[in-house]
């Protein structure tokens, strides 16, 4: 067993080394880490309370007291963007987490055991896939009601089918591999095989998908906010800030510019990282 | 192979039934009373009860579902909107072409931008050209659609006054919505083209072509491109789902009378039958497209074809 | 291989061509006799009995007429009825104008009126506007005379008959139209229906056989443009000649633009924050008054509405018949608020919830109120509730505080007060504060039944004073209709209820 672990460790190290050579991916990673730090230390970084209103100082343009200016309630936009990182990252990671675990589980079980499980689960996935993701998410939010938690659930659940599919496809191809046959011949239980062999080897495409999935989840949340199914006030989620500020975009563009840029930079970094990981982990491009 | 195709086509039916039941159930459990939503704050209890009775909403859940399915199968009748009382079928059929047109134009934009960018990136892999091209492609995907839309409108309609800001009848009116929608998936198409091209590029026959003395351009366009495009085509099919979703926001910003906007308004108003009918229609289109993609995939990739024998 | 590639290219080309080709330019270029009006709402149906939404009314206002017309100045003048007499306490007799034809050529007769009124009474959507009419009493006396009565004395009957939902329909057209009548309306108005591209535009055309002064324009096209920012842009770039409902953020821009004209008038809507007066601590009038004193309504209105509309001093807007303009506003006085709270036993404040639906302005009001009440020790949690649940739950009295609006569509104090403050209207009919005051009940009953105008005014004046003092509401905002037109547009007048008539509109040279 220790041989496997060592091998896997050196595999990860190799991946890490290759990743470091991909400049774009490194930039993406650095930005992401920066954003996560901002989210964690928001209390320290933000100079104002994100809900503090000053109705006499509305629409202040960016200056030395308000780096990003103030919004229509006189709230400091910089502080709101900083706190917003918490919410947006939370939404992204948790939504993908839900999709990953539930979808991955379904996919793994379907792919490995096949038979009735497979047919049943995959028909269910087909049904969910037949409806465009955002429509599914909108429907779920309509059922559950607005709010951050429900938003995460909606975006997460609507993404389950794609993860199920990816994992299943991978598991199916791994299943036929020789070392799995060997393990089974040795008498290892199915559960053990799935946990120790199948899942670790499906990680590559799943990691790539998840990285990009976080980006997608953040954008979906913004989209839902536009339709009016977003976050409750006065939470400074970037998408809601963008949506609330768009009415003033012609005279006071700074209300949308900064949350918009924040979203863009986050999505960009996630995509760069994801692309880099794909380059690194895709066997066909290894040379 | 033919058996596989036939089986896949047949599978569409249970999927549609599943979708209709799923949507019906979800709507039923969605909080929100369509009658009160429609009648508003001035309604008396009598009016509310009256309308509820008129719309058949007092029947138990399964009875309503059964009646609904019966109407579809026997009369091809998807019912009438609770809000406008217009036939659901007409509503959806009149708006579907707009959404389809928007999505297809979005596909056009995304491949017009994505494929050239991907090719350039692949040919100049790891140079600064590669990075810049990919960066530009990513910008499109990183901006929330509604922000992009409004910025484009302000830029082209207000500042430059060369394009209209709403509507979807003249070709000028179609440019901005298509751009807004298409740039999002351009990055993914570019990415796919790039990796596919990179793979094809290393093949022997490309080296042969180059050693024959053919110019780089000819090599790329005449020989490499064809095989590069195969996986790209399948990706584009998959992008359709993303585009249909993006159409919802685009239709609202640009005042396009499409199915996306219809769906969102219907969900908000709890106009059950429109939501039902719309989702069924969308799901059906989607299934057909997925089916097409799956078949293409199986057709082109011998490994997968073997699995489905 | 080459054939395959060119085949693909060819099919792509064909697809592209088809996509772009089949599109005829159908947005009319604003000319001298065709008016393009852009609005945000989406008309639901052109059957006035099929819906009560403003977008539909705005369109069918041009197609239909009522017996009595309420002018922009809120005077009642003859329309399809040339005269009317009150026969007894409950009964009126109307004489119809002769020689009026519908758009389908049918003549207007009293039987059409009878048919219309009976159908209106049966409508779940607008039945409440005809409410007190006694169905059995509607009698056709002769082709041009009709008699009707109410079940009990109802002073504002004539204003109700002037409401656009009381449009007179042609019996033949409605019966023949069946379920689809709403998409093929036939009226007597200055414009007739031409076509309707759902969710996109409605086209109307001048009716040349109109019984009074013909419309000045040949054609009106109503364009549906939901996004407020884009709609203003359409006005600026010439895509529309008139736009309705300019958002507060764009008001100064349109005002400053020399090629555009801003049109703004007080409307009949009021926004309020209601208390549940049957629930502690809001059953104590001192608490309610304290909250009124703690809120700086000017600041709220300036921030949320950017100077559009005005802070409300009472429950009625300034142009409603019977509005008491002498009411004293609850100006901000934090110390007085704290004192009252202490008096009532809440020196340390309390925690409560404020409900709102997803209406943008209401949410913003909630955010500011939350902030301002914190200053007097009241912690407010904002809860956004889905619309129909919102209406159902406030009708059931499950709330603490809530934000809602009301439009006095008839511009008569009865409509603006009875449903909101009479004890018999608790719950669904409109009194969601569950307010009950015996004297107010008495006064509202009096106002509703006596036809003596002076007595009505006096009753409503007093009722409003009591309501103001007892503060079942935080009186928030009375609204404005804000439209914008191109500077070449003439004759555009806004009706306070929001459904503006367009037959006097024309373009200057």
Short description:
The complex is a heterotrimer of chains A (287), B (309) and C (509). Chain A has 287 residues and is an all-alpha fold.
Explain what you see.
The complex is a heterotrimer of chains A (287), B (309) and C (509). Chain A has one domain (39-274): Orthogonal Bundle (MetI-like fold). Chain A is 76% helix and 0% strand. Chain A is built from eleven helices and no strands. With 309 residues, chain B is mainly alpha-helical. Chain B folds into two domains: 2-75, no CATH class; 95-307, MetI-like fold (Orthogonal Bundle). Chain C has 509 residues and is α+β, with helices and mostly antiparallel strands. Among the domains of chain C are: 2-43 and 177-266 and 481-507, Periplasmic binding protein-like II (D-Maltodextrin-Binding Protein, domain 2, 3-Layer(aba) Sandwich); 65-174, Dipeptide-binding Protein, domain 1 (Alpha-Beta Complex), CATH 3.90.76.10. Chain C contains 16 helices and 19 strands. In chain C, helix 9 runs antiparallel to helix 11, helix 14 packs antiparallel against helix 15 and helix 15 (438-449) packs antiparallel against helix 16 (453-470). Residues 1-7 and 21-30 of chain C have low confidence and may be disordered. The interface between B and C is large, with 58 and 56 residues.
